[in-house]
Write a structure and sequence with these properties.
Transcription Regulator spoIIAA, globular, seven-stranded mixed sheet, 7 strands
Length: about 140
């Protein structure tokens, strides 16, 4: 059994405005968003669902979100990238940095889930694919912890 303690979402708009929403059962759809981040803490890990573009504009907010998780001594992170349409080198840097932080002293790891083919090809081309574990669904990733 996995308990959800808190759920919130960041939405970063092209004009730089950041909207923080606390999740409810209703879906929030806003046109023109660049990236959306939803964090769901579980007992054994944190699920981070990212949608949209991860580029030089949005990567700092993703990095901040992931670093806030590790600052709370939580090092098992699942990144669900099913709705990510683009990852730049800045986004790849965020993935590598957080993986290094989590694996330092064998504290945990970052697992990538539901990764789109284009994003996987980007990781593979950059030579970063071997640094991550991949799962087809969130449940399998959670069960691995």
């Amino acid at each position: 059994m996995h308990n959800c303690f808190l759920r919130f979402r960041y939405i970063i708009f092209p004009n730089g405005i950041i909207l923080i929403l606390f999740e409810s059962t209703a879906n929030v759809i806003i046109k023109g968003k660049v990236m959306e981040i939803t964090v769901t803490p579980y007992e054994c890990c944190d699920l981070v669902v990212v949608s949209g573009r991860i580029d030089s504009y949005t990567a700092p907010k993703l990095s901040e979100t992931l670093n806030n998780i590790t600052k709370n001594n939580r090092y098992n992170i699942i990144l669900d990238l099913s709705d990510v349409i683009y990852v730049s080198s800045a986004g790849l840097r965020v993935f590598i940095d957080i993986q290094k932080t989590c694996k330092r002293l064998n504290k945990g790891e970052v697992i990538l889930v539901n990764i789109p083919q284009r994003v996987y090809e980007t990781l593979e081309l950059a030579g970063f694919a071997p640094l991550f574990t991949f799962y087809q669904n969130v449940k399998s990733a959670i069960d691995s912890f």
